[in-house]
Records
---
Amino acid sequence: MKQRFLSVCGIIAPALFLFTIILGGALRPGYSHISDTISELFSPGSPNKLLLDTLHTTYAFLLILFGIGVLQTVRRRGQSQRIGVIGASLFIAVGVISALTATVFPQDAWGSPATFRGEMHKVLHGVISLLGILYLILLGIWFDREGGLRGFRTYSLITVGVVGLAAAFFMLSMGGPAMGLAERAAMLAGFQWTFVLSLELTRGEKNNQGCKTSWEMLT
């Protein structure tokens, strides 16, 4: 599979997810992007669940493809590959787990009895958060050292800090009027990192000269 296509998947995936939640909110009467969680759109019995599940699964598949592209990039660049390989593998794992959170283990509808699938949904989101922090750090280090993106480690650590603050805000606002907003803040912080990395890799493939030049133009 061509490397540039895999890199572009990292641009499409965040855009598709944003489209999915905007569409889901528009099709669900009374839904609020400020106070309601994203997972509510995929709860059992939710309106248009089949459509949204299909879009969400496509998004997760695109994440996996982008992760594979990052893994291939790591393997063909630089001498030190371990950190990059682990980071890319964790990214792929996040894509796989994400696919399960909407279809196999959806969140229980608010006010309904707790189920095994609903409890697993919470566990899997916790795992995604942990793996997300780890791949941000590991890939940030690798692309800074070996991938030609000088300063990418600092940028990645800043992203981790923003995601952490947004996640803390989400935990504190759980059940409150700003719960959905806090969740979306954490999501967007992670998405912008994926988008930037994907954009740089795509430019590098297009120019056949890696991603160093375009990142240095940004920094």
---
Amino acid sequence: MIAYDRGMLPFRRLLVALAGRESDVSLLHYAGMLRRVLHEPEILCVHVDVGSDRPGLRENLCARVATLLPGARCEWATGDVLDTILGLVGVHGSDMTLIGHSSRSRRRSLARRVAMKSPSSVWMVPDESPATLRSILIPIDFSRRSADTVATATALAEAAGLEECLALHVHFNEALVTFDEFDDILAEDRDRAFGLFIAPIDLHGIWVKPLFVDSCHVPETIVHTAGEHGCDLIVMGTRGRSPSAAVLLGSETEQCLMTSPVPVLAVKHFGTRLSLLQALWDERLRKRGDERFT
């Protein structure tokens, strides 16, 4: 069964990447909400200075952190923004990086690159996102990686006091012609597949409600469904065929990070941060024999 120890759930060390803009206010409010939900994790707030020459920026930033997120550490760094953030994730031992992005940035390049390369899970928060966690959407594809994502999302939902999550499976039928009973048979197969998929997962007492949508545009459907159902978080998995490759994003996750108007949590699964030798000896990974070792 895929399960987690409550004392380690879902994230215990958070790194908050600050931009040195007014948008940091909403990100710090969001971090404060997460601190309450996650039962006081250790938080490190970081700003990487790229030579802005704005007088008093450092003092104002640390004062803002002290006011809005009291007790959190605040560090000032210089250098390449991406490399510095990734380095601090390793030094701090962060298991989640919280990063904002401007709604004016179409590609959200920094947030997307951090999500792509970071060994930790990455929670991307659009500017001015409300500091709420009331409804979670979990896109699934019935894979083991997807099962890990459901376990993480339901643990987060349980910590937030939610009663249910919505699991979305986007299906594309390539057949041009189908018989009259096809939809009924397909629906029955989907329900059976979902039951088999969800049965071994520790859902932490959360009801996971399945939703099946026919579409050939997966990222667009995920984002649209989140808006349609009033979800304020999308929890998605990453993919990879080895522990080192597991930091790579799937194309659907990357597209959602680039386009979603609501926060997206890209989950890096267990084994991502292990060395190859450690991973080979990790009992969970050896027993699973999944695609990360093919």
